[in-house]
Design brief:
Helix content: under 10%
Strand content: over 45%
Radius of gyration: 14 Å
Order of helices and strands: EEEEEEEEEEE
């Protein structure tokens, strides 16, 4: 029923950029936040960027100033623009929708930052 589909991951050199996309379908919540998480090897899943419906975007300290989250309300798509990527950013990135009914997750997209 509810689907979140991520795209845009891949292999990039340090200092490079990637733009992740996540399109939601089957959502009946009137008000919901969309967020990006990441899970690096040996680490817990971490919230990296959040876009609440009635507030400003927020970011983890480790990505502040480098990542930008945005939404297209017409297409129910959330983006994560990632600039100045570092090897420490290597992780599986997950799209999350937090609505009145509950949380929904995408399958994740791999981002690898390496020379």
């Amino acid at each position: 029923q509810v689907q979140l589909v991520e795209s845009g991951g891949g292999l990039v050199q340090p200092g490079g950029s990637l733009r992740l996309s996540c399109t939601a379908s089957g959502i009946t919540d009137t008000i919901y936040a969309m967020q990006w998480y990441r899970e690096a090897p040996g680490r817990q899943r971490q919230l990296v960027a959040a876009k609440p419906p009635g507030g400003r975007a927020s970011y983890a300290d480790s990505v502040q100033g480098r990542f930008t989250i945005s939404r297209s309300y017409a297409t129910d798509t959330v983006y994560l623009q990632m600039n100045d990527l570092k090897p420490e950013d290597t992780a599986v990135y997950y799209c999350n929708l937090n609505g009145q009914r509950g949380d929904y997750w995408g399958r994740g997209t791999q981002v690898t930052v390496s020379s």
